[in-house]
Design a protein that fits this description.
0% strand, single chain
Length: 81
């Protein structure tokens, strides 16, 4: 799903909006917390790609590789039930 989509910006029923965005794309709506997290994380890559390409284009540079680095320990809490 497109994380930059306008319908995902407002506060409120984010889970419902994520489910609707998935259905519009012909995908099953996430049912568990883990499925929601996976859906969002999987959607980050294309969003990052677009942002890096825009920034590179504005700077007049080419970017071959972008690495996202983080601490696994910090991310484990997002999937805990």
């Amino acid at each position: 799903m497109d994380l930059d989509a306008r319908e995902l910006l407002p506060l409120g029923d984010m889970l419902g909006r994520i489910a609707e965005a998935c259905r519009r794309l012909g995908r099953a709506a996430p049912r568990t917390r883990g499925e929601v997290v996976r859906c969002v994380v999987d959607s980050l890559a294309p969003s990052y790609r677009r942002a890096v390409r825009r920034a590179a284009g504005s700077a007049g540079r080419a970017v071959d590789v972008a690495r996202v680095v983080g601490r696994r320990e910090a991310a484990t809490g997002c999937c805990a039930s």
